[in-house]
Amino acid sequence: QDNSFEQFIINYCNEKLQQIFIELTLKEEQEEYIREGIEWTHIEYFNNAVICDLIENNQTGILAMLDEECLRPGTVTDDTFLEKLNQVCATHQHFESRMSKCSRFLNDTSLPHSCFRIQHYAGKVMYQVEGFVDKNNDLLYRDLSQAMWKANHSLIKALFPEGNPAKLNLKRPPTAGSQFKASVATLMKNLQTKNPNYIRCIKPNDKKAAHVFNEALVCHQIRYLGLLENVRVRRAGYAFRQPYEPCLERYKMLCKQTWPHWRGPARAGVEVLFNELGIPEEEFSFGRSKIFIRNPRTLFKLEDLRKQRLEDLATLIEKIYRGWKCRTRFLLMKKCQIVIASWYRRYA
């Protein structure tokens, strides 16, 4: 019920994860259809980049305002931080405050004076500003770090590397918010270089009880996790896509014209292959560099045909090998018989 700085930081990380989920599933997939020249009707979805900008913008973001309050001279309190937010973020559509200059919330008496509310992707969350400044400072006195670094215990010494006199830095240590922001940025950069697979966990009830299914709770999670938009894109789009070259290489044994070697462009080979297999035209589309398959059943059918064909090829290879082995043995026996017969006739 009472959300402070810690929950604010956690929700910020959730927003960034949701943003990369949107980038890699909804936005990137629809842009790929356009790049590949596939006929496509754009499906609208909510992009939470505006919420991330509200929190992390270097000039007008909430974290930037918090750092500015922590670093500026003079009397600094949680109330002065909230006043700055009211001035800078008042007109933002996802920010609400009791003292906000935005007339939409001037009559919102349910919001206490010492709180602000952010409309996150998953819903509205109210934060108590009490403790924001102190928790963000996260100061460890320099002389204490130096004293701990001088300890004889190696583990304690390793925990306070900033106490090393050789690395003495007179700059003010970074705030907790800025450290977390940098850590999240590193995480996002790392995820962008990967090919992630998403598993969305749905909590069936709040009691952690078995065989209890709360329909309202599940529907709420489905909405705020963005699953509805994702399902709409998936159903309207294509379940599988692959460049022409590896697709032809994988399934070329299913068609006499492409097996064992196809002489020509890979796309033409894939077209011949799909026409030979009799796959309905509505089940696939040809992009500029990839083949797009709409229904998973079509892919499963291709895999089943390939599996059966591989078994047939294995049988053919085994048959040819056995025939070669028997013929080799027969020719050897025939040669031996001729030698024996010739020697016998010589002495007969």
TrEMBL record:
This is MYO1B protein. InterPro entries: Kinesin_motor_dom_sf, Myosin_head_motor_dom-like, P-loop_NTPase. Pfam families: Myosin_head (PF00063). GO terms for cellular component: brush border; cytoplasm; microvillus; myosin complex; plasma membrane. It comes from the Eukaryota. One of its GO terms (molecular function) is microfilament motor activity. Residues 184-206 are annotated as: Actin-binding. GO terms for biological process: actin filament organization; actin filament-based movement; endocytosis. The keyword Iron does not apply. Keywords: Actin-binding, ATP-binding, Calmodulin-binding, Motor protein, Myosin, Nucleotide-binding, Repeat. The keyword Repeat applies. Belongs to the TRAFAC class myosin-kinesin ATPase superfamily. Myosin family. Residues 1-307 form the Myosin motor domain.
